[in-house]
Amino acid sequence: MQQGLMLLIQLVLEFAPVVAELVQNRNKSSLGLSKYEPIEAIPEILKVLNPANKKSGDVEDFEQARIFQQQLVADNHQTRLKIAAQERETALKLPEVNKILDSWPLRLYPSQILDHTNYGHTPLKIFIAPPQVDFDQFGARRDENIFQFELMLAEGLRDFLNKDYSLHSQLRPTELLAGAWDSKRFHSESSIKALFGMLKTEPSLILESENDGDYLNFRIAYWGLGQENYFYKTIARLPYREILEESAKRRALEWKKIRDELVALGEKLEEVNQLGKDNVINLEILEKVEKWHEKGIDISKLSLQYQVNRQDYEKLCQVLITYHCLVAGWVADIYHLVDRGVPPLLPELLPSLLSDTFDLQSVWVIASGYKQVYQALENERSYWIPELALELAQSLCHLSDAYGGKLRSWANEQLNYSVSTWLQLRQISPNDSPNPLQEMQSAVSVKDEEYVKKLREYFVAVGDTQSIADVDEILNRIANLKHQVTLQHILLSHTLTGHSEKVTSVAISPDCETLVSGCADKTIKVWNLKSGKLIRTLTEDLGKISSVAISPDGHYLAVGICQHPRSNVKVWNLNSDKLLHTLLGHQKPVNCIAISPDGQILASGSNKIKIWNLHKGDAYGGLCQRISTLWHSSAVNAAAISPDGTILASGSSDNKIRLWNPHTGDPLRTLNGHSGEVKSVIISPDGEILFSASADKTIKIWHLTTGKVLHTLTGHLEEVRSLAVSPDGEILFSGSVDKTIKIWHLQTGELLQTITEHSGAVNSIAISHDGQFLASASSDKTIKIWQIN
C-alpha cells in the first residue's frame, strides 16, 4: 500500500496550491456576480466585516458579521448555481456540439448528464477512465474466468463512496458514473477538453490510468462549480508489472510453507507439486534468483517470467482501488469544503484505507494541504476557520491513538491554529497571554458553546488536564450567560373551555385585560385575561372564524371569516359589542387579518389582500373605504404590518413572503427560502426583523430591509402555525401542529423551553403588551393562558 500513500502525497502537493489559487480567483470575482442577481446587502456586509468597525468583545457585532459572511457565501453559491443553470440550458444548442461529440469519450449523452431534476446539493461527478492492460504477456487465459478489471475497480470505488460520499448524502454528495467512459477509444487531453466544453457546469473528477509499458500513468482531471478552466495532470506512475510479480512471489513463498508441511507429514513431493500449479514455477525462479544473488550475479539483466493468476490481478486492482478512493475522497472533501464549507472527512478514513501500512509523514502532508486551503479561505470565510481547523485536529488526534505520538504534535498545531483564529476574529491577539484559553473567557458568547465543547473533547482525548480545567471555566461562563437569558418561570394560569370546535385565533387587548378567541364553531368569545372568566359571546351571522385582531387603541375588534359564501371581515366596537362594519369583496375564504400599529388601516387576506381604511365608512354596517387590492397567485395565510406602517408582509401557500407598501399597493420585494406554505409572519417591535413560520417545520428570521435570511430555527416536528415575539424583541414563541409551544432566545437562536400541555395542534398564540401573559389556541378546543415571570 506504500504506493497509495505516495500517490496521495503527490496529489496534495500538486493539487492544494491549485485549489488555493481557485479560491482566491473566486473571491476576486464574487462582486462581479451581482450582474446576474444583485446582492443588495453587500455595502452593509462590507461595512460590518471591516475590522475597523468592530470592537473587541462586542458579541452582537461579531454575530452580525458572522451571519452576513455566511449569507454572502450562500448568495454567491446560489448565484453560481443560477449561472450554471443558464449555461446548462444553452450547452446543447452550441453550433459546434457535433464536432465536440466527435471526440466525446462517454457512453452517456450530454443531455443525460445535464439532467438535474433529482438533485439537492450539486454533487461531484466522478468518472473512471480505466487502463487497457495487456495481460497476455503474463500468460493470462482468455476464458470465462478472465479477470474483470474495470468492473472490480468500479465496485471497489462504489463501496467506498456509498458509505460517506453517496449521491444521497446531505454533506458530501458524489455521483459515480461507472462504466460511462468509453475506455477502448478515448484517453488523454482531447477527451478532457471535450468533456469540459460540454460539462463545465457540472463539478467533475476524472480518474484516468493509462498503460505505459510496465507502468500505469495515473492522471486526474478536475473542475469545480464556476471554474473557468480544468486541472489535468499525471500525479503518479504505478509499476503494475512489479506489483503483479510481487504478488506472485508472495504466493510462491506461502506455497513453500504449505509444501514443506505436507512433505513433513509424509506426502510425496511430486504429488504435492501437482497441487501447486504456477506456484511451483514461481518458487523455482525465486530459489534460482536467491542462489544467483549469493554468487554475485546481476539478475537485473535477466528476463524472469513469473506466472501470474487471478489473485495477482486482484491485488493490482486493490492497489488501483486504493488510489481511486484516496484521490476521490480528497477531491470530494476539497470540493464540498470550498463549495459549502463542509469539513473534510478523509483523515478519519485513512486507517481503514491504508490498513497494511501507514506513513506518518504522508498524514502530515495531507493535514498541511487542508490547512493551505483553509488559509486561502480566510478572507472569504474567516468565521468558519476555527471550526474547520478544530475538526482536522480531532481527526489527527484520533489517528494518534493508533499510530504514535508524532501525530499528537501535528494535531496540536491544528488546534492552536483554530484557537488563534478564533481570538483574532474577536480582535484579541493570541500572543497577549501565555494561555490563549483564558483569553477566550472575555469574548465567549452562548453561540460558542458547541465549539468550546469540541475543544473539551479534544483535550480529554489527549489527556491535557490543565486545558480541560480552562475549558470548563469557559463553559461555566457560557452557562452563566445562558442563565441570564433563560425565562425564570412560565406557568399555566388558566385553561379556557367553552368552544365546541378547534380554536383558530386569539388576540390580547393593549391594556392586557381582555382576550378574544375565534373558533371554527362560528363564535367569538371575549374573556377576562387575568381571571379567565367568559365576558360575552358574539354569534351574529358568522361563519367559521379564521382570525381575530384588536386595534392598538383597544376600541375595535376585527374578525376574518373563512366560510364561503360568508367570507368577509366584520368590525365590532369591542367595548359596546356593536357591529360597525362588514367588509365585503373577497371571493375566497378570508384566512388572515392585520391592523396597522397606528390603527388606521386594516389588511385582510384570501387569494388577494385588501387594504381598508378602518375609520372611514358607514358606521351602521356599510363598507369601509377600500384603499387598494394586492394580487397574490395563491392563498394568503398570514399578514403583518411594520411598526411605522410602511411595510406589509404577507405569507402565502406558494411558499413565498411578499413585502408591499400598504398605502400605495406597490410590491417591494419577494422573499424565497421556505420549502412549504408560509403559515405566519410577524415583525419585531423595532421594525428591523421579520419572522416567518412554515409548513416546512422551520422558522426563518429575516432582515426586513435587505430581505436576507439571518437564521433558521429548527426543532418542531410538524408545521409551525403561529408566532409571537416579546415586547423587548428578545424572546420568540412558536406554536405548531406537533402540539407544542417552543420558546427561543433570539440573540443566540437557542431553544429555551418546550411546552407540551395541549393535546391538539397549536393554531394561534399571542403575547400581552406587558410581556406578562401568553395565550395559546388549539385544535383541542381549549385556550390556555400562561403567566410569564
Describe the structure.
The chain is an alpha+beta fold and 789 residues long. It is 38% helix and 25% strand. The chain has 18 helices and 33 strands. The protein has a 5-stranded mixed β-sheet, sandwiched between helices. Strands 6-33-32-31 form a 4-stranded antiparallel β-sheet, with no helix packed on it. A hairpin with a 5-residue loop joins strand 27 (720-725) and strand 28 (731-736). Helix 13 runs parallel beside helix 15 (406-425). The chain is elongated, with a radius of gyration of 35 Å. Residues 30-58, 142-146 and 617-623 have low confidence and may be disordered.
Write a concise keyword list for the protein shown above:
789 residues, 18 helices, 38% helix
Overall helicity: 25-40%
Question: Could you name the ranges where pLDDT drops below 50 across 5 or more consecutive residues?
Answer: 30-58, 142-146, 617-623
Strand content: 25-35%
Instruction: Please list the strands of the largest sheet in the order they lie side by side.
Output: 2-1-3-4-5
Count of strand segments = 33
User: How far apart lie the N and C ends?
Assistant: 66 Å
Indicate the overall shape: elongated
Q: Please state the structural category.
A: alpha+beta
* Alpha plus pi helix count: 18
Q: Determine the mean pLDDT.
A: 81
Sheet with the most strands?
A: 5 strands, mixed
- Rg (C-alpha, Å): 35 Å
